[in-house]
Design brief:
mainly beta; 4-stranded antiparallel β-sheet; 5 helices; 13% helix
Length: 466
């Protein structure tokens, strides 16, 4: 093994953006990043860092690449019924494809079920009510390199307690690009028009699919792991089916089949639209006849979208053990699940069976990482551009804050290859997307970063082992 000091490489010292991070709680106390009300997300290629505080209702966007100036602070215009920030996630924005550069947007979820998108400059791109519950997690997944699902696509999933919403990557790009083109004209409006622009009615609704996954109890975390075959009686169906894994208090692990079909009849759809149109017409006529009727001062919240069809597959109940967090491998075929008893379960999401178990890791968090284990090639003078996907080995990085270490284990049944000490008040992060593109001939490996909230140091875990 290499010396301990060689396992981490400093990427940036975010002291220049301390004012921006201070708005999110940095420096208020030692270990401020351990606060569960503080959420963080690392942008593609570790160029930007987003830190949000639910208690302060503040979002800090800090640039990392280029070691430039400080970041910006965004205070979302959220009403009392729109909640506070509970989740953040970076998503790609292909607005600079013509210039050969990719852009990004920042998705923000609230504890009242609202989803907002912002540019790097803090401009609001989109605002939409998804479901009246707390957004536990936002997860953007790239499916381009997943051999299990040939017709899969990128997606943004929104996780609620017992509910999963999904937005297809193509629909998301169309909506974001259109909103991006409209940002500057909206910035030129006066104050009153700008306030109207922040209302949901000024944006087109983003197409979503939503499922109820509370058959085995409310979930604390969940993920869509990919496409799966349809039921035997629906082999001729053109609808796609997804597999979802959930973890929670009642069931440590649960699995569901999610269908695109909402299960609504044609007659029901016609009636629902007809009744809505009739009610709208009657309401308009009443306003004409009784003009003295005061207009409502508060706009009603849009009605949640109807659930699509969900089929429970299996569940594991092991009281008093409770599932806490779930992390997917790049292909979605493995899931690392932490529980309340300090165990980490490695689940094969195809076969829905446990393939490995670790004990003694309370409050741990996990991220998958790809490491170079070939000593000859790793020590050679060849550049990183010459490495291919076959040169990397999939591993699991486990951050155990009570032990003060980060361990790296080789998948699926390999040994522990690293144990790195880390300071308190740190958090492991990972870019949400790797921007796999033909513009870059080399393979972009999955990396893990360590952010020390107290010192502002951001480091990357070295890929070369041995």
């Amino acid at each position: 093994m290499a010396p301990r000091g060689h396992h981490l490489t400093e990427v940036a010292l975010l002291a220049s953006a301390s004012g921006c991070l201070a708005a999110a709680g940095a420096g208020e106390r030692e270990g401020w990043l351990d606060n569960p009300a503080v959420v963080a997300s690392l942008g593609p290629r570790a160029r930007d860092l987003a830190v949000a505080s639910a208690a302060r209702s503040v979002l800090a966007i800090v640039p990392i690449a280029g070691a430039g100036g400080g970041g910006i602070t965004v205070k979302p215009a959220l009403g009392p019924d729109e909640g506070r920030i509970s989740a953040v996630e970076w998503v790609p924005l292909d607005v600079g494809a013509a210039e050969g550069e990719e852009g990004v947007a920042l998705a923000v979820g609230t504890d009242a079920g609202w989803l907002l998108f912002y540019t790097l400059a803090g401009d609001l791109l989109h605002k939409q009510s998804i479901y009246p519950a707390k957004i536990l997690k936002l997860n953007f997944s790239e499916r381009k390199e997943n051999a299990w699902e040939d017709s899969g696509s990128d997606e943004l999933s929104v996780i609620f307690p017992g509910v999963i919403a999904r937005c297809d990557g193509a629909d998301l790009q169309i909506m974001l690009q259109k909103s991006f083109q409209e940002v500057k004209p909206r910035m030129w409006k006066d104050k009153f028009e700008q306030e109207d622009a922040d209302d949901e009615s000024s944006f087109e609704r983003m197409p979503l699919q939503i499922w109820n996954v509370s058959k085995f109890g409310s979930c604390a975390d969940a993920a869509i792991v990919g496409l799966m075959p349809p039921p035997l009686l629906e082999l001729q169906s053109s609808q796609r089916h997804y597999c979802a894994i959930t973890v929670g208090e009642d069931a440590v692990v649960s699995a569901y089949r999610l269908s695109e079909d909402r299960g609504r009849s044609l007659v029901g759809a016609i009636l629902s639209r007809g009744v809505a149109a009739t009610f709208s017409t009657i309401s308009s006529l009443s306003k004409i006849l009784w003009r003295s009727e005061p207009s409502p001062t508060k706009k009603p919240r849009p009605k949640p979208q109807s659930f699509a069809k969900t089929s429970p597959l299996t569940c594991l109940k092991d009281s008093p053990r409770k599932g806490e967090r779930l992390t997917l491998s790049p292909s979605g075929t493995l899931a690392a699940i932490t529980d309340s008893l300090g165990r980490i379960l490695l689940l094969d999401t195809r076969a829905l069976v446990a393939v490995r178990l670790w004990k003694g890791y309370r409050d741990a968090s996990c991220l998958f990482v790809e490491m170079l284990l070939n000593k000859d090639k790793a020590s050679s003078s060849s550049t990183h551009l010459e490495y291919t996907k076959s040169d990397y080995c999939l591993c699991l990085a486990i951050h155990a804050p009570r032990k003060g270490i980060i361990e790296v284990w080789q998948m699926r049944t390999g040994p522990r290859i690293l144990a790195i000490p880390c300071p308190k008040g740190s958090r492991i992060l990972q870019p949400s997307t790797r921007f796999s593109s033909s513009l870059f001939s080399s393979y972009t490996p999955l990396e893990v970063y360590l952010f020390n909230g107290d010192s502002g140091q951001l480091s990357v875990l070295n890929r070369h082992i041995g």
